[in-house]
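Obj: model holo form, ligand = pyridoxal-5'-phosphate.
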Amino acid sequence: MVHAPARPPAGAPPVRINLYSDTQTRPTPAMKEAMMRAEVGDEQHGDDPTVHALCDRMAALMGKEAAMFLPSGTMCNVVAILTHCQKGDEVIAHETAHILTSEGGTHAALTGAQITPLKGPRGMFTADQVRAAIRPRTRYAPPQRLLEVEQTANIGGGAVWPLEQLNAVAAVAHEQGWATHMDGARLMNACVAAGIAPKDMVASYDSVWLDFTKGLGAPLGAVLCGSSEFIGAAWRWKQRLGGSMRQAGLCAAGCLHALDHHVDRLAEDHANARALARGLAQIPGVVVEEPDTNLVFFDVRGAGTTVEELQRRLMLKGVAVSGLGGRVRACTHLDVTAPMIEEAVGHIREALAA
Ligand SMILES: *Cc1c(COP(=O)(O)O)cnc(C)c1O
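Output (holo structure tokens):
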């Protein structure tokens, strides 16, 4: 059994137009410079000043009391759910949620929580659906503990939850005494697209995290935010999982640089995604979903080919896309320009005509 990531096919040229994922951005020269200049200490010991600066800034941005720097977004979800839940507790989430589909079963393996999936278009569900999922508090039912949402919803198409809907589902959870957690891997994309400040977007969520390795373009790092009590408790899990770091200020400096320079420009990624969707919609047999943010999902079965075959043909042209949930996913990000989008549409048209 092979679990390691696949390497590129032999004979493929280097990737020139990388729409595979917004995780594949390379740190810019200015970001690297900021990282090299960083003042550092021992993060695990609590004395890395750049990590403190990042956490203070993130707590303020999200309107929460405290924040914690972690190596990855996945570890933010794992630490958060371990902190909110006990073995046997129930988490309510969308059926396409990253915690359910893409974290290797970690919440069953490590927390021992069960995740109940809700359905709904574009990675979202309604307050009525949450209400319908409430169980009687008997010894038969699992203790319901946590409601989880993804903003933006990744497999949902990079969809942005409307603020009223985020607040409405959280209100049902809080009425029941459950906690609320937001997977904000691409939260800034949602805030820029909707024109809503992060602290307003996440106000009804007890914990929230932001990934710096997606559209924000940092090489690693994610920040989990919540109450001082929550973050205090989360530190035990960070330590247990080996997520406490040393001179992590090097990476935190890249994240601070991203907050200063890579947030407003997400609007360009969204414009490029819309241009890509418009171009793809002109290709016979392609069904494309209108993007809210930087993720463009399209179906090529009507063009008589498979996701894998299209990926293979595009790799030979130096263009990378991914497959997710039976569809093709193309991501725009800071290493993708408007001319590249135009070129990519041409290659996709050609590959589908072949
Ligand atoms: C990427 C992603 C994660 C995981 O983040 P990593 O930094 O890759 O561990 C979690 N949730 C969503 C919605 C994501 O897109």
